[in-house]
Amino acid sequence: MEFFGSFRHRASSATRPAASGTADSFRFRGYRGGVIPMHRALTHFRLGFMNLVTAVFLCVFFSGLWLACLGWMCEFWKRILAIGIRLLPLHAELAVADHRWTPYLRAPIPYPRIESVLPTAETWGLACGVTVLLLAASFFLPKKLIPAVYLLRGVLLVQGSALFYFAVMPARFPHTPDSYMQGLVSSGMGLISIVPLLFALTYYIFDFGLLKKAFLTATTMAHLALFLPLQVLLQALVLQKTILFMPVLYLIFGMPVEVLFIVAFYAWGMSWLFRTTNGE
Asked: Residue 198: what are its φ and ψ, rounded to 5°?
């Protein structure tokens, strides 16, 4: 069974000289006149029966393996957090929240418990000054750094909104470092849990072979599992000073970073060669 058969015709027809004076002569050509071929992920896409079987098998296998190892993984995170609290200049206590989804599925989620510290006038003024200076500096960066400029301004926009909120009504901030740390671990755990499903829908359907698909999934989940406690410790070091930076940590340096890791691993896997008729 093969979809996108028309893409092969499109790719081949794009290489043939088009008749002048017709609209099709420029459909598949770049602004310099070169032919734009169809991306290989589409021209070689075969949604065959074995790819479907492989997708279901790998999704069930890795999801079941992750759920079976979830208790052990929480214990591993707990030990990493305990070592970090002991070695780093971090004034926190290690706490465990027992999350139960079903009578048979539970997870003791470890997280650092931190005292909630509102920003002082000095801290608020220093953060505001740095934010304004960085915003002004972004207008003097070269044009070739436009993507970095917009990313920087986006971060500053979030921090600027936090500065405004804490200047107007700081006592009404609804979140505490404890709830934030617990939510960060919980969301990271949930994101790792859906990696097999994401890859089943977007990667396993391509003909890369069983070993490559399994390797990419295992590498992605292992990387996220090792990164999560380090991310929690780093953010705890910031939040113990003041909760002024909690919005930017959550919106910019929280789950979006983990999502970018998944996208990066996916792009790496898509750069591999497809399986040939002779095997891997």
From this structure: -60, -45
pLDDT tens series, the chain, 280 aa:
444 444 444 444 444 444 444 555 566 666 666 776 665 555 556 667 788 888 899 999 999 999 989 989 999 999 999 999 999 999 889 998 887 767 777 788 999 999 888 888 999 999 999 999 999 999 998 888 899 999 999 999 999 999 999 998 887 888 889 899 999 999 999 999 999 999 999 898 888 888 999 999 999 999 999 999 999 999 999 999 999 999 999 999 989 999 999 999 999 998 888 775 444 4
Quickly count helices (H) and strands (E) in the chain.
11, 2
Domain boundaries, the chain: 1-45, 57-118+173-270
Rounded to a whole number of angstroms, the CA Rg of the chain reads: 25
What residue type is 111 in one-letter code? Y
Closest CA to 250 of 197, 194, 168, 186: 186
Q: What is the 3-state secondary structure (H, E, C) of 124-158?
A: HHHHHHHHHHHHHHHCCCCHHHHHHHHHHHHHHHH
Please give the sequence-ordered ranges of beta strands (E in DSSP) within 74-206, or none if there are none: 93-102, 105-113
User: What's the predicted TM-score (pTM) here?
Assistant: 0.78
